[in-house]
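Researcher: Next entry in the queue.
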Amino acid sequence: MDTSPLQFDIAPSSGVPIYRQIVDQVVALVAGGRLAPGDFLPSVRQVAQAADVNPMTVSKAYGLLEADGIVERIRGQGMSVSADVASGPLAERRKQAQELLAPAIHRARLLGLTDKQIRALFEASLKDSTR
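Model: Structure for this entry, 131 residues:
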């Protein structure tokens, strides 16, 4: 198993269902190459305790990931990134990133922020994420 524990960034007040947040984050980590084929996801219990969510919510997310072929269940070990999953070409990863950013940009505009302000927030968030 992975020695550095993977933790999900769950935002209960974001309006996005928690199971969807987990699915989206795993997909993004795989697409970005941070999760490689054979890497294990944390157990349902670990994620539920760390994020203070119902284990059934995590189980639902993992089930969707398994149904999509992104992860596979390894008996007695847990959920592993499928060997069939590749990070894909840059165009596909950019498309996935755009799909994740589009709702945030829309929400920021609804809040009355200008494109310049949104860019500044994005740059600040990007800097914070590299620390």
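Model: The chain has a mean pLDDT of 87.
Researcher: Noted, moving on.
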